Amino acid sequence: MSYQIIDPLGNVAHDAIHDIESFFWLLIHIMLTRNGPGGSRRDISVALAGVLDLYFHGDPGTLSRKKGGLFLFSKKYEDAQAELSNLMVHFDSYFEPLKSLVQQWWNLLYFAHKYEAYELWNIHANTLRILDKPLPGPSSAQSEQTNPEVNRREEYHKSTLDAIKNSTIARRPQPRTPEKRDRKATSTASAQPVDPVSQIAGRGPSKKHRKEKATGH
């Protein structure tokens, strides 16, 4: 969540930049807590646990102050840059190629927060422009980690398609044919009409009524 929105003493109106910053922090959290492809969780060291407490697990005031150190809470750009560099040190080594993307994205957010100008009013387009840039290729070690995960996803995709193709789909009930509808209409029309008045009159008094009349009660 954006440092301005999470601030318990803040009164800033929610804007698009806060959504983009929240997305930024989501990526940071993945790089800190995940270990390579597949989403397996890293072994959290004492130092990393302290970082997570300051940026993600603390109370709202602490989170706002620490996250804000990367933006307007730092008096100078160099101070905010140092905060970011100290944070990126804790990224898992698998995400090394993404550090340049994080740096560019942070630059955009920093200047968008600092100046109400081009960076702020075009925050979505500028973010997409950064995310669309090609990333550096993975190292050989990263490729060795990635290939099994790619194979797993391809096999899962294929097995899912096979399951869909081979599954039995319940058939919809067939609508009645015109012949069946005509046959039912004919049988209904051929039935003899019954006069309800004559039917009631033909029944005569009920057994109970006849007994009461005979006994006088």
Automatic annotation (TrEMBL):
Residues 139-149 have a biased composition (Polar residues). Residues 136-217 are annotated as: Disordered. Residues 205-217 have a biased composition (Basic residues). Residues 150-160 have a biased composition (Basic and acidic residues). This is Fungal-type protein kinase domain-containing protein. It comes from Sphaerobolus stellatus (strain SS14).
